[in-house]
Amino acid sequence: VSVKASVMKGFVNPKIESIIEEEKTVSHAQLSQDTEDVISDPKRVSVKLRPENLEACYPPIFQSGSKFDLKPSAVSDEANLHQGIIICSLGARYSFYCSNIARTFIIDPTDAQQKEYKALLKAQAAAIGQLKDGNTLSSVYRAAAESLAQSGLSGNLTKNVGFGMGLEFRDSTYLLNAKNERVVQAGMIFNLALGLENLKTTASGDDKTYALMIADTVIVQEAGKDAEVATSAAAKEWKDIGYYLQGLDEDAEEQEPDEPKEVKRRGSGRGTVVLDGTLRSDANEEAKEARRKQVQDELIDKKNQETVQRLKMASQEKPTKAALGGNADVVTYTHVDNVPSQSQLMIQVDERAEALLLPIRGLLVPFHVSTVKGVTSRQEGSATYVHISFNVPGSAFGATYAPAVKFPNSIFIREASFRSLDARHCNQVVTQLKTMRRHVVSRENERRERASLVVQESLRLASGRPLRLNDLMVRPGLGGRGKKLPGWLEAHANGFRYSTRDQHVDILYANIKHAFFQPAESEMITLLHFHLVNPIIINKKKTVDVQFYTEVMEAVQTLDGSRRNARDPDEIEEEQRERERRNRINSNFQNYVRHVQDVWSRDHKDLLLEFDIPFRELGFQGVPHKTSSFVIPTVNCLVDLIEMPFFVVSISEIEIINLERVGFGLKNFDMAIVFKDFTKDVVRVDAIPIQSIDTVKEWLSSMKIKYYESRMNIAWKPVLKKIIDDPDEFLEEGGWEFLNLERNSDESDDDEEEEESDFQPDSDGSEVGPAWALGLF
Which of 563, 672, 562, 566 has the alpha carbon at shortest distance from 623? Predict the structure, then answer.
């Protein structure tokens, strides 16, 4: 949105003023082309956006003279810019989302034109006032019409005053007219475009028609809040768009011959108009830092109170008892007669009964494979030794070993060793036992995971033809023969179904916590990603992240092994094919997302589902797991959807963020994310380039997330444990302010006798928190 306002403010305004001031001859079409070039290169108006993600929704529209068309389908003709009424409309699409702006500039206006424009401004304000959650679209139109009726201009108002926008520039189902009774909802975006057409003037002695138009991108806020005008940076008040040339000719005679005439604005006591600077400067940076500090200061008390209140409520809930380890009900043989008889006493493996038979005191004694901890073999001379270790109380399970709880007076065998001269048989037994144990452990893990799953409703298939997206791969991958086969994703009545030839995965809409659509730009894949509320089983493992993707580029290997010239026709043709394939796949995904979003808005409003698209311009490099990746914020999350394991953090679950290793002149810093649920481990994103720290801080402040900075990494487990144990002491000691470097520095300066730091480094150099967190106060 900022790019349109910046282009209007930083290019269109000065360009028109220059044309008028220097009496140049420029056509509407040429102006449109020059403006479109600026939109495709936002650096020319000091906007930091990726040019490859930015494009014009339509060629910029310039109109002047006596012919005006206020429809979005209008085009800029070859006529020259005329000094009088000038209407300019700009539409831009960034990362598939659209926005729009239009302004009217008036040269030597009449009193009637001034009154008409001010009436149009007043009508737009009335319409914006009706763009609230719960109102109908028709009420927006009526508000504008009733406001213009007071000036006798309601008959000149266009048939509609705008439309809904989003992935599509013009959503015809959300037209702002007198007949549309659809309801406005929070989060909707509208192009509010008010136009007065067929206006007449007789100032020059003959009747001429003209038009006036104002358009802005408006975002509907939550109930009780006024709508936000996203393009307000481009001025539209009368003093900003009215220019006067009459009376300057006489003044020009008194000027030097080479001195240009000046263009004066109404309400301006200066000559040539100079727009406010938008370039990066130290003053701007200081202002940004001051704004961030103000936002952070406002969050301090609120965050501390919320933390203590939540901890006190959590302390009233009794923790559930941990599940017992092991299985006390395993049975190998129901009767002694079922034990295999052997003429020779040798170690045997019975795969059918999942039993290990050991010769002890002349008998084959069965042990279920789940009781076996490990088995090894070694050879010494002609003999082979087999060593078997068993699960016992106090080892990996501690006091919660289920057999020990069920049979408290029993004696458990810790280990057993056997010697044999048959090396082949010993190796065969070890191999069979390891294979069987691996199979049983895997089965038991899957059983336990399935037992912990939340029971969900069954998928209801669509009555008609479901929305389908073809040629998709899935991550985590399916097992079996369908592991590398592409499948298709269908949207049914209450969920998605991904299918291959012989397998399928169901994802219910009610189980989706976050949905993401990430088109391919610098990546190799275009993807849909679903972060779930409750985990599901894929390939015998639980997962809360499921991703469907298509590769947009194919791996190509040159057989001659030589480097090709950048101007090689084959290279150029290959790059063109890749661009076309990427654009086609992105478009297919975009259309699918748009149709699914319509289904959600129509049939599942209560779920409040919406596809999130990552904001690449706010992204930064970091290491959320073991490899470096590009971490990107979205409206509701912080994500990395390319590298596995996936990284998805919900912003609503974040308590605070601590930026660590800041201030030592290092090239990188770390981000520690503390959740509102203190029982969760702190999530880290390490090795973020220090150049990204301002971007990270700006994003955190815009999302109203409290952040701190520290010079070292903090060991968070003891700190959070202390906060949970004594929340009142935590609040009395200033809450999260123990992380405030500025506060700690001021206190150290005031107290020169203090010898120890508030932070106590542990043996590995990490900070473990302040003195109160360790119980040292």
Answer: 672
